[in-house]
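Self-study notes.
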Amino acid sequence: MSPADTQPSESADPAAQLPLLELRDGLSEVIDTDSVLSEAVEAFRSGTGPVAVDAERASGYRYSHRAYLVQLRREGSGSALVDPIPFGDLSALGDAIVDTEWIIHAANQDLACLAEVGMVPRQVFDTELAGRLLGYPKVGLASLVSEVLGYRMRKEHSAADWSTRPLPAPWLVYAALDVEMLIELRNAIEQELRREGKWDWAQQEFAAILDAPPREPKPDPWRRTSGMHRVRNRRSLAVVRALWEARDQIAESADISPGRVLPDAAIVEAASAMPAERDTLQKLTAFKGRGAHRHMRTWWEAIDHARKLPDSELPKQGPRYDGPPPARAWADRDPDAAARLSAARTAVAEIAEAHRLPTENLLAPDTIRRLAWSPPPDVNLEVVSTFLRDHHARAWQIALTAEVLTDAMTSEAKSLD
């Protein structure tokens, strides 16, 4: 059934009254053999216009972030569901569409896993990012399809384990729907961007996605353990670190999500309890599950190692920063910097509101903090513009914010004259 054939239901719920999005061409078979993949490559090579692309990972189930299903749709090519696991490399498919625009919702989430299988675009249109530039309060795919195109999408399999084989038919329908109307959504959003004078902004943002350098691993990833605020001393922090690292090695080796090997709650409970012997550890509530019990020797060895570390090797209480300290500490450490930050945040927020933008999409909060904490010498418009450019701000962002940020950086000095 095509979307045009569906009719709104009789319901008091406005969302339920939207026609349910259905597959126009029916559900195609999953592509998992060389011969069928070759046919798909030629079909997408001969298609016209942009291509809608999506990928499904097994977040929450697997350690890796690899793609377990790739979905595509193009005018004249139809839709395709490709299982990348039998192939490992899908560069032939990527090469067939490399010269056209790829429409991806939340491109930053999918580009890495697509590149891992040899699919790297030269041009993208990110419908989520475009929705942010247009000021939509909800920019999930289902929300935008509903708001812009008037169709209700299924959501029930968003957290499925896509490494499952064979993939159930209802999951495949859900996955195929993710690209069913991406082309129509992209075209409608382009019209809105042009009407609001934001088309050039979007073009710069899309180019920045592709030009962005690979993300550097964050220091001390163990500090992101949920519940860390309950860990009060450096010795307990060492236990968190030791358990996190032991869990990470097991999870990576088995390609299992770390939380399924040992929950964060168990790590924090052990760090808080500081058990002196293995029997005590085994009695902790969070360590009674099958997964925790399976590696009990490893957990105990990690804790015992942390307990015996010399004080000089214990982690520091606070995380390491490669930039300014947390803003909450500025008022005491540097009142002038705190005043600059407050003025800068207020000015940027006003511009964002005037243009119906999320503040973080107008200018990265970290860039504002770095500028306010340590502004360049001899602050002027050119210097601030260069600072923003060096911190990866786009031309449209600099044009909107450089002047007010220059004023914010010099306002304190002016008030002292």
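Second protein, same conventions, sequence then structure:
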Amino acid sequence: MTTASQETPRQAADAPPKLHADNITVKFGGLVAVNDVSFTIPDRSVVSLIGPNGAGKTTFFNVLTGLYRTTSGRVVLGDKDITNLVPHRIAGLGMARTFQNIRLFGLMTAEENVKVAMHSQLRSGPFHTVVRTRRQRREELQAREFARELLDFVGIGKFADEYARSLSYGDQRRLEIARALALRPSVLLLDEPTAGMNPQESARFTDFVHRLRAEKDLSVLLIEHDMSVVMQLSDRITVLDRGEKIAEGGPDDIRNDERVIEAYLGKSGRGKSA
């Protein structure tokens, strides 16, 4: 019998849903950015959302995380309906994300950037903070230890006291992930995490996501243009084009899907690999 720790990616894809989006439609005036898209993330899986520029991927991400409201449809995280909740409530229920454009506090240290994400989890009120009670000091120490643990996990522990703006591009990406993990999410959304990375950095990132899923017991949703990363990481891939879902399946299914090839390469690309 296969244990949870021995579970393969394809087995994980058959697990119960961790997140389900049902018939999501998003309209901006007369523009339909996402049209009737349903989407499921199984527990402890890595799922990728791909498509040409303008396909609606980031809009869909923004709906899941509460930055955009749906025109119609429903989003369920675990057993909770999170449709159109504000972002901080969705984060508190177990969904965290990174952004395509890095959003760090440049003049705060790496450790401080991670601790910012823990604010909603701290219980010491203004009195405890001003007086610096034993409770507040204990909580502050625990936050510092957890932040350092996360920085070590993502591989930048030695830079804990460095300003975020002084880190390399790849290390800033890792810091963003550490900050997202500080929310203790069950679902982590990564928006083009390898953008700007060289092939060696992308390969290390691929290994890191495998470890992230295994050691943090997470489901991961990935928007990514590097198809080698997508194919290596994904249990399942969903393809959007012009706001509509045109394909869904395993990497081999998507690689050979005629609709996907046409969306990326045009009709002249038929027969080539996606």
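Instructor comment on the second fold: The longest helix spans residues 134-154.
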